[in-house]
Predict the 3D structure of the following.
Amino acid sequence: LDDLSDTWTRYRRTLNIRLKVADDLIRILRSVREDDYYFGLFSDRLQTVLVGMPLTDGRDFHTSPQLHEIEIDHIHSELQDVTSRIANQQQALERALDNLQRAEDGTLNTLEPTNFYRNQIQINLQRLQQLEDQVNNVQSSKPLWLSWNDTLVDFASSAQKLDEVIATSMARMARTPLPRTGPELTDALSVHKQDSNLVFDLVSVVNSKAATLADLVSARPADDYPKGPYRVRRYVDLNLAPGPQESEITRNIRSELCITTAGLETRSTAWEKMWNSNKQILEKISGHIGSLESLDVIERDVRNAENELRNITVLVTVEANIPQIEHADTGLRHLEDTIPELQSRVRSVAYLPGIEPIRGPTDLLEITSADIGLESPLRERQQHLEKRVSDLSVATANCRSEVNLTLQLLRAVDDAENRLSQITMNLNQLRTLDTPDAPRLINEQLIEAQRLARRYAPQLEVLANKFPTEQAHKRVRPVLSRLQDSVDAFEQLYEETRVRSEKYINLDRLRGEKLPEEPQTRRQIEPLDEVMEFQKTQPPMAPPPRPPTITKPLANIHVVEGTPVTLRIEFDSGIPPSTSYLLLYIKLILSEISMKKT
């Protein structure tokens, strides 16, 4: 535990030392950055004072006075501030360097921080010397200008800036291609507005400074008011014969003012005309691009409608089921409601009268604006969209006909198949039916099957013939075949059942010739009791015999004349004793069969 405590104490001391060194370094770096910033500002200001020259072709209109007292006070104040900052930084560097050297950490690498501190101390010493040299140069070697010269320099600087801005703006308007899309138009309008604001501000500044300078040198404006908010006010020299007390510097400044304002008036006038022309062009392009963007939206909707119609067309086929076709029918109804809206939107974005090419006025640099050429793409796109929507309408109408026809065919096929299924089930039930009324039931189903065949066969054939391909015929052919097969099966079953049903024919025995009436006999009716007693004493009598029954019918109801046939007949009372009687009975049976056949 003692070793662990000693180790922890040593590590904690090392951490504290390194944290202190790091804090000193961070504080020094922050101070160096701030002092460098203030030093740079002060150096730039001194450099501007040293190299600043008037913008009037270098003419010095006055003697070389010393720097103004106010300016000297400002420079001295700033110098003391910067010097104080650097001195404080020097002290902080020395303390940090001393702490770093006295740090009790054998593993700490102090080489790089030590070099940094020492280098920064040397840099600060050099800067202090540099500042003192610059101030001495300003005070001793650089004369500056009096109030008139300062005002002229300020005016000339603003005039030059305005001239550059006008030249840049006119070059941009002449060389920049016209916008073709919405974002390009937005950027062009933004830059156009920025140029307007910048030129307006600079023109206001130039007019204000020109008025101040004109009061000093007795110049008069050519007009009472400027001709436009973007035009520089021109001044003229009305002192044709300068007075005896007017100095040469006054005449030079007045001449400089008149020449500069005259040039700026011409330049600003040309810029204003060109800017207005470009503004009109951008406004007209804005209308056209708005139409183009509307056409983009319409084209996207038309493309979506075409894709939807294409998907519906894929769904519509005679091999599909009815729910799929009904789904396609729902989508087609929505598409049919959309097409009139698309047609109305295309007509609402119809091409407007063409834009006449507008050219900007020629300026001092012979810069002119470009022509406008958006009417042709707008007209072409609008006509192209009209054609696409028209083709879409025709295709939708054709698809509607196909959907309706397909629905009719599939519903007819589905109805026929449902009825055929019922008929087939009835046929299977009647095959096993062995009752006397079987022929009647089979005949009823046969009539129903024939009625269905007469109803559905022509309908399906007519619907299939309306399709241009053979797919519809392939779809209805199995149904027609099943209809015919059902009718044939019922006819065959009916004929077979009719033949088999002949065994249920009740044949009466032949009756002989009518005998003459027997002579009437008279006897006395005995009492009822005696009759009953007499019947009880009599032996039981057999039931009356039934008529003969055919147990083996004909193989087919249709028998060629002259073909021998065999019938198996059961007589309940035995075979008649007379052959002639039997032959007569057979003739009677054959006559009844022939009567049924007819």
Q: What stands out?
A: The chain has twelve helices and four strands. The mean pLDDT is 73. Residues 248-315 form the longest helix (68 residues).
